[in-house]
Design a protein that fits this description.
By secondary structure, the protein is an alpha+beta fold. It has 4 domains: 31 residues; 94 residues, Beta-Lactamase, CATH 3.30.450.20; 77 residues; 149 residues, Histidine kinase-like ATPase, C-terminal domain (Heat Shock Protein 90). It has 9 helices and 12 strands. Strands 2-1-5-4-3 form a 5-stranded antiparallel β-sheet, sandwiched between helices. A 5-stranded mixed β-sheet has the order 7-9-10-12-11. β4 and β5 form a beta hairpin. The longest helix has 90 residues. The model has no long low-confidence stretch (mean pLDDT 86). The site of adenosine-5'-triphosphate has 22 residues, from α8 and α9.
Amino acid sequence: MEAERLVTQYGYALLGLTAVVAVLVAVLTFALLRFAAAARNARQVLGEGSSETVLLSAALQDAVTRLKDQERAMSARAAASEQLSAQIVESLTAGLLVVGRAGGVKILNPAGRRLLGVAGDPMGADYRELLDAVPPLRDAIAECLATRRAILRRSLEVPRGDRSAHLGVTVSPLGGGDDAGAICLFSDLTAVVELEEQLRLKEALARLGELTAGLAHEFRNGLATIHGYSRLLAPDALPPAYRPYVEGIRQETEALGQVVTNFLNFARPEKPLFAPVALAVLARRASDELRHDLPGGTTVTVTGEFADIQGDEVLLRQMFGNLLRNAAEACDAAGRTPAIVIDGRVDRARGTCAVTVSDNGPGIAPADRERVFQPFFTTRTRGTGLGLAVVQKIAVVHNGRASVAASAAGASIELTFPLA
Ligand SMILES: Nc1ncnc2c1ncn2[C@@H]1O[C@H](COP(=O)(O)OP(=O)(O)OP(=O)(O)O)[C@@H](O)[C@H]1O
Ligand SMILES: [Mg+2]
């Protein structure tokens, strides 16, 4: 019995122990399961977080790339527009000068440098010094800077070498603020002004011809009548005291008749016969023809470059003849042996051939430079003053011009013709 009781107690103890172990195992399993679930959750949360970061950084990178592309395109556009404005400034056929408020040169394009005869890059130089030799242009810019008002299409006569050039100038105030300066556009109008001058000369010659030819014609008829009557008066039949008067009437009417004939020749409208003419050949031929009329020892040298022009050979020979005769007469009167030079120069850019006839005589006084081409202007006692008027007329008929050129010694008459 005792033994049975002992076994039962032992059995209960074992059973209790087993139950405790079972509970412990269950608790452990539950804890393990919870730990695994927590670990899974943590892994899930962690996984979602990293993909969000990746998305964010990709978007950022995309935006940065797009910004960079835009920046590249903008700087390319800026460079292209800068290049375009530089090209425009470079290739402008008009001169462009931009100055700051203080007078510093900011831009002077190649055409401007050519027109103003500036060699290097004048960037930063003072425009007043730069334009020292072109006072009218300097004054126009100063006026615009001072008044802040635009000067539109003003025509300025500026010195160029030994003659003058004409510039068409527009100056406008530039921008605002402290650095407000002026922008000046200018172009060479010399050819246009010369053309206008030539047209004016042509019209003046035509008017003069029309006005006076009729008068001169009547005058010549009257002179012929007086001369005719004077020839009817036989000097031998007159008392000796009256003979010199009749001689005087004859001589004066003859001389006046010659003047009127010369003038009528001058005023007569020319009907030129144009053909290609080699100016060098023509100049030589004119001097050969005149050889016997010129004082002994006279030399005529033809030098330089000549070109062909469309011209009337007879008129051009007459033109050279008048110039050679004038030169020889001036030298002879000054007691010098005439040394005459006919020099040719071709300017292909302007399409002209310039011919100067120079001598070693006393030259032409500056005050007479414009007047020598006027009909009847003469300083010679036996001159009619028509020689150079005829020269000018022949030059104008050929769409050219005659002018007195500057020369160190003696006279120099320049003729300019358009090339054939
Ligand atoms: N080579 C020269 N040197 C100096 N003076 C000159 C020369 N050529 C012309 N002149 C001046 O110009 C004036 C006008 O010349 P132009 O040939 O027209 O008339 P002219 O010679 O006086 O008379 P003519 O009608 O007989 O030619 C001359 O009187 C002279 O004063
Ligand atoms: Mg003369």
